[in-house]
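Agenda item 2: magnesium ion complex prediction
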Amino acid sequence: MIRKLLRRVFKRTEPAAPAELAIIPVERHGLHREQLSPAARKVCSVLQERGHTAYVVGGAVRDLLAGQTPKDFDVATSATPEQVRESFRRSRIIGRRFKIVHVMSGPETIEVSTFRAGQNAESTETDEHGRILRDNVFGNQREDATRRDFTVNALYFDPTDETIHDYHHGVADLQQKTLRMIGDPRTRYREDPVRMLRAVRLGAKLGLSIDPDARQPIREMATLIENVPPARLFDEMLKLLFSGHAVTCLKQLREEGLHHGLLPLLDVILEQPQGERFVWLSLDNTDQRVRQGKPVSPGFLFATLLWHEVLAAWEIRKAEGEPLYPALFAAMDQVLEQQAGKLAITRRIAGDIKDIWALQPRFDKRAGKAPYRVIEQPRYRAGWDFLRLRAESGELPMELADWWERFARAGHDERAAMLEPETDGPARKRRRRRRKTPSGSAEGAASE
Ligand code: ATP
Ligand code: MG
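Presented output:
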């Protein structure tokens, strides 16, 4: 009890204690400047020549030390955004509240940010839960390190002398495979609840275990995620789902109690018995594609994640006597609307999702002219990939997906031979009539 109390008191004072800078030489960390992108090196050297300090920082240093390829390179510097802007011809200042500079060099864009001040009462505006709304004051490197989230993210690599400036034992934590929060985890989660999702994602991506002090409060603080603006949450979900470790991340989220009642999408994914196999198959498929460097599309993934919701809503409408296609379009809108409050699925992505869903019932028809029109659809390939996943999950016979694959590849005569005989006349007429009227209006309703 007393020890617990003491630990608490000490932890409270920890953030205030000055962080001790360790300058770690290359022999001890093994990261060489050649491992950086040419643009990252150039940006640092130009800024240094002009008398500023400049380091590669954050995710890139962390990933390289962990033996992974960084997505991009960020630079932190003592130069102000205006000074950075003046140092590079192809650069522009972005952001209104806290300005950062994008420096373009060859095909790369380097994000350059000026050291930021620590988060303290004077410079920081928060909401009633302690979530930071604004902190836009420049600071020194030490302060910049302290406002970062995890120790492994607060490493500054100087390409010139190949040292790492480490204020929070990040190099040691990385070597010990631990994800540790800088400062008091509860305070840091309150300031920015997205850090809980980042903990799970970075842990999974780098194979780090979340330090018990940072892990334990997540369960009780999970509901704070509700206060995060939807657009930010959506960005973070995309990062998580396309991290190449989505399966691990989502299992971990479920374990940490981070999914429940927070994101309708996650509830759908992790709590639906019917579509579970389909959803995990799809996530696994996405992970493999990301790791192989193949393109992945948010529209496709979200379409799979929400498909069984659509199926359920569609069934109800059909049972109530609504015709096939209008019922489907209405079900699609209903499901997307349920997500809209929490996850700001952009219009474009919603359009992609609907295209994929709308193609599905058309795969049932293997007679007449319809199959020729289906394979000419611009989204046919995505629609077929989706069909195949449905078959793999056991929702449909694999034979159907195989048939379409053969049909799409076949020559003229072979195609004709593959078609099934037309069903009886009245059904055909009914279908024609249906197509004439609602296709336009259904689309109209869908894009509301
Ligand atoms: P990745 O690029 O793999 O998604 P990352 O850690 O680089 O991971 P970014 O969003 O690119 O993530 O952020 C760059 C750096 O900014 C981080 O390494 C960290 O130091 C800091 N940072 C990012 N988000 C936060 C946050 N929510 N709270 C505190 N610091 C953050
Ligand atoms: Mg990054």
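Discussion summary: Residues 9-16, 426-448 have pLDDT under 50 and may be disordered.
Owner for follow-up: CH.
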